[in-house]
Automatic annotation (TrEMBL):
This is Carbohydrate sulfotransferase. InterPro entries: Carb_sulfotrans_8-10 (IPR018011), Sulfotransferase (IPR005331). It comes from Priapulus caudatus (Priapulid worm). The gene is LOC106817807. It comes from the Eukaryota. The keyword Membrane applies.
Length: 308
C-alpha cells in the first residue's frame, strides 16, 4: 500500500493489516487477469472517463474515484463540506449537481503533468460494491423510483430512458406503450444487448460509453494502474469510511453520513429481482463485470441459485 502524506496515530495495526491485505489481493488479481494491460489501460475516451471520475481536493491533497451506487453521493457531500469554511455538515449539501454547485474539481481540469503529479503524491481512495448488488441499486434508483420524485431535468431524462427500454425490450407487443414501469428483466436485456455495449443510448459521453451508473468499476477507476491507498467496500462502509476520514485527518471535523437500515435493503431484495432473469442474461451480466469480480474478489456465482 502507498503511504502518501497522511498518517494518523488513531489507525490501529489491525486496520492497516486489513488494507494491506486488500492492496496485495488487488495487485495479485491485476497480475492474474492482466488487467493492467490493454484491456484496462485507458486511452483516448477511456482516459477522459477515468479523469472525469477522479474528484480532487488540493487543499488536503486528496483524490477519490467516484463509483456511482457505491456511496459516491455521500462522499461528494463530504468533499463539498470540506470545501467550506468552517467545515459544514455533509447532509446539508444536496447531491443533485453537487460538483458544479460547489465548485468541486475533477482530474480532467488539470494539465496532464499536473494530473500525474497528483496521482503520484496525493492520498487516493476508492469504494467498490458487489457488481450484482450495484446493478440492482442503479436500476432501482433510476427505473423504480417514481418520476414525480425527480427534479425537472432528471424527470425528463429518466422518462426518456424508460421509454427507450419499453419500446425496445418489452416482450408483450400488446402492452400499453405509456406504461413506463420498466422491469428488471427489461433493464437487464437492454444492458446486455450488443447494441448497448457498442454505444449506450443512455451514455453521458459523446463516445457512447456505458452510463457510469452501470459501467464496470475498473473502467471508471483504473485500479491496476493507480495504486489506491485505501480500497473500501460498500458492505463495510461504516468502518471503512471512518478509517478513511481518520487517514484524511478530518474525522474530528465531520462524519460520513449514515445509511441506517437502508444499507441492506438492496441486498435483501436481490433474490426477488435476479429470479426474474434467464440464465443467459445472468451469464452476460457476469461477463460484463468479469474484471470487477476478479479484481475486487466478489462472488460471480452469487446469484446462480436464484436463476432458473
Amino acid at each position: 500500500m502507498n503511504q502518501h502524506n497522511i498518517h494518523s496515530p488513531e489507525i490501529s495495526p489491525k486496520e492497516e493489516a486489513q488494507q494491506n491485505a486488500r492492496a496485495k489481493a488487488l495487485l495479485a488479481a491485476c497480475s492474474a487477469t492482466n488487467a493492467a494491460g490493454d484491456k484496462a489501460s485507458p486511452t483516448g475516451a477511456r482516459r477522459q472517463r477515468f479523469l472525469s471520475s477522479i474528484l480532487v481536493d488540493d487543499r488536503r491533497r486528496l483524490l477519490y474515484c467516484i463509483v456511482p451506487k457505491a456511496g459516491s453521493s455521500n462522499w461528494q457531500r463530504v468533499f463539498a463540506a470540506l470545501s467550506t469554511e468552517p467545515v459544514g455538515d455533509p447532509l446539508a449539501f444536496d447531491a443533485y449537481n453537487i460538483n458544479k454547485r460547489h465548485g468541486l474539481k475533477h482530474l480532467r481540469a488539470y494539465r496532464p503533468s499536473e494530473g500525474r503529479r497528483r496521482l503520484e503524491t496525493y492520498f487516493k481512495f476508492i469504494f467498490v460494491r458487489d457488481p450484482y448488488e450495484r446493478l440492482l441499486s442503479a436500476f432501482a434508483s433510476i427505473f423504480l423510483k417514481p418520476l414525480a420524485d425527480f427534479g425537472t431535468q432528471h424527470k425528463l431524462m429518466f422518462a426518456k430512458y424508460r421509454r427507450h427500454v419499453v419500446a425496445n425490450y418489452r416482450r408483450d407487443a400488446d402492452a400499453d406503450p405509456r406504461d413506463l414501469n420498466v422491469t428488471f428483466d427489461e433493464f437487464a436485456r437492454y444492458l446486455t444487448d450488443e447494441l448497448t455495449l457498442a454505444a449506450d443510448p443512455f451514455s453521458v459521453s459523446y463516445t457512447g460509453s456505458l452510463n457510469p451508473h452501470w459501467a464496470p468499476m475498473y473502467e471508471l477507476c483504473d485500479p491496476c494502474r493507480v495504486r489506491y491507498d485505501v480500497v473500501g467496500t460498500h458492505r463495510t462502509m461504516a468502518a471503512d469510511a471512518d478509517y478513511v476520514l481518520r487517514r484524511m485527518n478530518v474525522a474530528h471535523l465531520l462524519r460520513y453520513p449514515s445509511y441506517g437500515a437502508k444499507q441492506n435493503m438492496t441486498r435483501s431484495a436481490m433474490p426477488d429481482f435476479y429470479r426474474s432473469l434467464s440464465a443467459d442474461v445472468v451469464a452476460k451480466i457476469r461477463r460484463l463485470y468479469d474484471v470487477d469480480f476478479k479484481l475486487f474478489r466478489f462472488n460471480a456465482s452469487e446469484v446462480d441459485e436464484f436463476v432458473s
